[in-house]
Design a protein that fits this description.
Porin, Thrombin, subunit H, six-stranded antiparallel beta barrel
Length: 371
């Protein structure tokens, strides 16, 4: 009889314990997720690594910070979560490492624009407010008697739920990114922890398969001085005179013939103008003031961040501004001519360069700034 009563008591206690556990789980699942600060922007996928984990994005409006967590949507559905490894404010580009995939998205289509959300910070709850004092009760207290101090109520300590031991039917949970916890992801893209379509990525060493540009600047402004040759009308007997020049160069193509980390090459267009004077060319106190302007293709071979070898070629038109006591050289000094030569750039500062050129049309040196 006592054994039957003991079995009944154990059965009743087990039913009561399971019911209380289910109520506790339901109450915990209904707890609201923490709020976060985030911003939405559009990003275009430009390149990706061979492994498909590293992507290069372009964003014209918002450039996420290094280390930030972003979530990329594909057709209004969360596709991938990325950790920002680096960004380039000049090119408006950033590199992200994939840390989570959703909805079995294997890869992002290069050239397509996607909606993205950057997690800025967690919104902390406001501090608890102090309950107002009862002024009516305070008036009844004797002015000379000391007022009792309010004793704060003890804060209950939350006991963490025990982690279930893995079984052959239930594999152990995969490790997650420290900032990519389930509550943050759920608050960011409104997906709760019960979403089973996520694919945990292995958080191994970062492998950024991208080439670093030796010379990341595309524009150069130059000021030079030296000897300039006048071979108007494609003459084979150039006239050398001292003068000065200004020019602007812009890169139009990288990796023309070489696709390696070092050296690298590029080609661009350069436009410039020259000023010099031809004095007493005809022996009659004649003075010719020249203002030639030119356009050339400039090929650069970047051997290091501080040294580049140049090869240029193009056309120049020798324009005469004025002539005093002109002679037979008046029609000879005006007209088109060919420009061809070699040179180099040497960097002596973050964006400052020394330049030297020697060719059919000039022997000059100068100073440049690049951006």
């Amino acid at each position: 009889m006592n054994l039957n009563r003991l079995r009944s008591a154990i059965l009743i206690f087990g039913i009561f314990f399971l019911g209380a556990a289910n109520i506790a789980v339901a109450a915990d699942s209904s707890t609201p997720l923490p709020e976060i600060d985030a911003q939405r922007f559009d990003a275009k996928a430009i390149e990706k690594s061979k492994s498909g984990r590293i992507y290069l994005f372009e964003s014209k409006v918002v450039l996420p910070k290094t280390g930030s967590l972003i979530l990329v949507y594909n057709h209004d559905k969360p596709a991938m979560a990325f950790r920002v490894l680096k960004n380039d404010s000049l090119k408006r580009q950033f590199v992200g490492k994939r840390v989570r995939r959703y909805d079995e998205t294997s890869e992002l289509t290069l050239g397509d624009s996607f909606s993205a959300i950057e997690k800025l910070a967690d919104v902390l709850p406001p501090p608890p407010s102090v309950a107002p004092t009862d002024t009516a009760a305070n008036e009844d207290l004797d002015e000379g008697a000391p007022k009792p101090l309010a004793t704060p109520a003890p804060t209950p300590v939350a006991t963490p739920a025990p982690t279930p031991e893995p079984t052959p039917e239930m594999p152990p949970p995969a490790a997650e990114d420290a900032e990519l916890d389930s509550s943050s992801v759920a608050a960011l893209n409104k997906i709760d922890e019960s979403d089973t379509s996520t694919d945990e990525e292995e958080m191994g060493p970062l492998e950024v398969e991208e080439s670093t540009r030796i010379n990341p600047f595309n524009n150069i402004f130059s000021v030079g001085a030296g000897y300039f040759g006048n071979s108007a009308n494609f003459s084979f007997s150039p006239i050398l005179e001292t003068g000065m020049s200004v020019s602007y160069y812009h890169t139009i193509l990288h990796d023309v013939f070489i696709s390696k980390k070092s050296p690298q090459d590029a080609i661009g267009l350069e436009f410039g103008a020259i000023y010099y004077r031809v004095v007493n060319r005809d022996g009659g106190n004649d003075i010719y003031t020249m203002l030639p302007f030119y356009a050339t293709l400039l090929y650069q071979l970047h051997l290091s961040p501080t040294f580049s070898f140049n090869l240029y070629g193009g056309l120049q038109y020798d324009y005469m501004v004025s002539a005093v006591n002109p002679g037979p050289s008046l029609p000879v000094l005006q007209g088109p001519q060919a420009d061809i030569g070699i040179g180099f750039f040497y960097g002596f500062g973050p964006q400052w360069l020394l330049r030297a050129d020697i060719g059919w049309d000039r022997i000059t040196a100068g100073i440049c700034i690049k951006w």
